[in-house]
Amino acid sequence: MAKAKTVETDSAYYPPRARWYSPVFYWGDAIRRRLWLDRIHVQLPYGMTFTGSAASFLVPGLGFYLQGGKSWVGYVWLGYALMVGVFLAAFGYPVGNFAFGLLIAIHVVSFLYYCGPFWQQAEVLSRLAVALLALLVIGLIFYLPARNAVLQHWWVPLRLHGRVYVVQRQFPAAAIRRGDWVAYRLSSANLGWERGWGHGGVHSGSGLSLGPVLAVAGDRLGFNTNGFFVNGVLHSSLPHMPQSGEMTLPEKQWFIWPEVDIRTYGNTPENAISAAMMQLAVVSENSFVGKPFPRWLGRRQITP
Q: What is the pLDDT of residues 50-75, one digit of tens each?
């Protein structure tokens, strides 16, 4: 005896259950009222609603789902999540920038797909204008602010010697110790000299730099032909270090020997270059940008 097949239908006495994306519709209606857009009555094409348009504008991939792509929208969201992973893993590399562009593209195409009924009755120039406007607005409202917030408050990529180091912005400067690698803002150095009939100069540009903290506030530094001393401990000399002299680092200062390109003009002596490098090597804690992660998503960054 065959079993009867049960078909579920919505009850006339109970409203249908809320969908998983209903909160997005709620926020879309709230934004509409906040901007007084509910007072503007626009006749949308059949198959489109204001809340659906707002929801597909806010959520990447939701436009495919709302316009009948429920069977394959999961692959879209999987691809979107994969691009997020590629962007983070290759943060600062061209591949990461390409993945970031694909994130914007998926979001924009999803919204334009929801607007399919509009395409059927719009002219070519109107379609092009809407597509360009959607790309501009979605990129400026969501992705560029999000990327700038990440760079300013959480992580920043720093390229040095062909490699990219991801730097943690929220690491406290007071916790930096001798031997830690730090990213910092490198100020420019300009030093001219004149001797007899000759003159010359040294110039170094500003920017972000990365290096280990060789000494901290209160440490005693000394230099000679054998190397440099930190609190009496001898270390190998680095390029263009002075061969004489000593100093004690003042409060909230670090000693970081910079890796920069030095431009000279005239017959510039080595001691002039060393003096310019010493100006750059004393770094204030106010120039601190962050501390590189020892590892970034499994990729080793700093070698002891």
A: 888 888 898 999 999 988 878 888 99
Alpha-carbon distance 236 to 126, whole Å?
A: 68
d(CA 234, CA 221): 10
Q: Under CATH, what is the fold of the domain 160-295?
A: Umud Fragment, subunit A (2.10.109)
Indicate the domain borders of the chain.
22-153, 160-295
Given a cut of 60, whether residue 156 has pLDDT beyond it is: yes
Tell me the C-alpha distance between 144 and 140, whole Å. 5
Tell me phi and psi for residue 252, to 5 degrees: 55, 40
Which residue carries 């680092």 as its tokens? 249
Encoded tokens for 117:
């009924």
Contact between 263 and 203 (Cβ < 8 Å) = yes
Q: How crowded is residue 59: how many other Cβ atoms within 10 Å of its Cβ?
A: 19
Beta strand pairing call for 246-248 and 253-255: unpaired
What are the contacts of 73-78 at 24+ separation with CB within 8 A? Answer: 76/106, 76/110
Tokens coding 264: 């000279």
Determine how many CB atoms are found less than 10 A away from the CB of residue 212.
Answer: 15
Whether pLDDT at 189 is above 60: no
Q: Strands 198-204, 263-266: parallel, antiparallel or unpaired by DSSP?
A: antiparallel
Instruction: Tell me how far apart the alpha carbons of residues 87 and 151 are, in angstroms, rounded to a whole number.
Output: 13
Distance (Å, whole) CA 8 – CA 149: 48
Vertex 249, ends 246 and 252: CA angle to 5°? 170
Rounded CA-CA distance 31/56 in Å is: 14
Cα 292 to Cα 187, 211, 296, distances in angstroms: 20, 10, 9
Beta-bridge mates of residue 284: 253
In the predicted structure, residue 282 carries a pLDDT above the cut 80:
yes
Predicted TM-score (pTM) of the model is 0.72
